[in-house]
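Let's practice the habit of predicting before peeking. Look at the sequence and jot down your guess about where helices and strands might fall. Then scroll down.
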Amino acid sequence: MSRPALTRPLRSDRGDLARTDPERWRLNTDEVGRLNWIYVRDDDDLRRRPQTPYEKYVLGLETGLPELPKAETPYDASLNGLRFFKELQLDKGLWACRYGGPMFLLIGIVGAHYVTKTPIPEEWKIEVIRYLTNTAHPLDGGWGLHSEDKSTVFGTACNYVVIRLMGMPPEHPVAVAARETLHKFGGAVGCPQWGKVFLSLLNLYEWDGVNPIPPDIWALPDWLPFHPSKWWIHCRQVYLPMGYLYSEKVNAPLDPLLESLRSEIYTSPYDAIDFAKHRNDISEIDIYYPHTTILNYVNSAMVLWEKYIRPDWVKQKARDIVVDLIRKENQNTDFLCVGPINNALNAIVIYCEEGPNSKNFLRHKERFADFMYMSEEGMLMTGTNGVQCWDTSFALQTICTIGAGDLPEFRETVKKGLKFLDNSQFTENCTPGSYRDDRLGCWPFSTKDQGYTVSDCTAEALKAVLMVQKLPYIETLVSDERIYPAIDVLLSLQNRGNFSPGSFASYEKIRGTPLLELVNPAEVFGNIMVEYPYVECSDSVVIGLSYFRDHSSYRRNEVVRAIEDAISYIKSEQDSNGGWYGSWGICFSYAAMFAIEALSYQGEVYANSEVVRKGCHFLVKRQEADGGWGESYRSCETLTYVPHEQTQVVNTAWACLALMLAEYPDIEVIKRGIRLIMSRQQPNGEWKQEGIEGVFNRSCMIEYPNYKFYFPIKALGLFAKRYSNETLF
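Done guessing? Here is the structure:
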């Protein structure tokens, strides 16, 4: 069963759960966008540092922001939205957000604390329990893969363990409901592989019951087509420390709480379970990507290899290689790592290798807080250390697109945003030997410290910088000489040869064959083994390069060719219905906006392009009776358009933007969508949170709460500029 919408008052406020004082939380940041939530106990410190509007907003407190004059026209509504949104900008120029959604992250950081004997702050314990209470399924008390998912074994087992380790007693109604649901599913033996790894680390499952994750594969020659250096970056960086921990059979010392949990999460006595027989047991409700026959044979062969054949020197060599690569990952990312899962796992590896007082482990401990985010519902763990660069790029683009950058009231907002992008550009490449591509001159998804560039993040930041630096009052902070290396990297990332020529993937050029998906071991994610071509990434690069093409002659012929080849790929990915599948947002409406924008920059619009006409017809057929669009996350899972139960402001903005950029001739269709966006705007200019917006690996949804601001603002402002700014009501 899918999860009903969150209700007020929050469930955590209806019972006996403790909560911290929301007025004592502060969000600290720095020039490169680090985000740390601090609980302030000293009253003098509170007075010296009043809460910002953003802190109040995300904590569910009254922001004190005024009601604005009622918007009579789309442009009025656009500016009202921007007036609210600019107040959420942090003093260092960025926009922050709660990048939540995945419900399998907390077990990693809680497990890392437990295994390494690192105390968890009391305020974290209180607020994590509140968050999990508020996100538990209201009908059965479990948790899913993500916050809008049905309950699953993975989500329920992991988060049940978290609330217990955080201090919730087993007889609490929240724990009772979750435990009953877990038992109804057959207990924790039905967890997918990642769940079994986390439970094994906590001594709540036996490593013999985990399918093999041998680090030995890293010792093979890296020219082999299946070497991990050919895998997608998230896959290889998660399985890198997992391989070490699996091989060394690392686990926490058994204590009374863990002993109790052993009796709570299974339907049979722990000592009676033959865990080795449950390697391939995955609950039917969890499974998204079943094992192939090839994977089962490979797993069986690896068990024999580990038990009876592998020489000790091979194991030691593999261990040395893995530890070296983990240290390089830490160096390249200042111990943030590519994401929260390998951050937690790498910390455990460093603890095992270097001890609790080593400089490297202590730096890991400092970085744990970068993933913990406070909200009205409690404390969650984010999917990376934020969305800072991505959100700031789109915010600045929106301001320029609607002409607000020329208005005096928004000039400081623009200046601060540009300064943040200036500070966020990479100024050095990665450590040699870490299997990383060049990043010099590029921009990240989150922060410079995090160390990873993504093709679309660089392209969208590039576009934002070029747009902002055209404003007459803006000083040029990012010179052309600093932009040229970004162009070099973007051109190098375009896929050629056999792998979707002309396309762009996410972090890197495609290195490995999609046939590696035959040995995808994760069970709950699709398309994780190698990089894949993405329509949205290709669209963004086309858009960024198009802006650069009109700005500079640097590598002109190669830039033009890259755009042309990417456009050919984008056209080839349109399905027979006229839609494009979106891999990073929900879903077809998201991809349509990017694809049509990229095509429009090459002069292809409704009047002269059959591809654009088909894309428009796809969207228009799916407009709802109230004038809006609403797309369910089920589209991402099923690879076909699935309507949401109600229209969504964000989907509506995406569809309207696509139709406007396409110069769709029936303005009434667009006008109906614009009316819907205006009707949902609040008196202070904001829009309320609706459905979840993002996705990764097809099956896991993730939040992009700032989408409900800058995309509707852009849609309203662009409508006023392209058509008329008349009263629509």
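How did you do? The beta strands are 25-28, 36-39, 372-375, 378-381, 629-631, 643-648, 694-696, 700-702.
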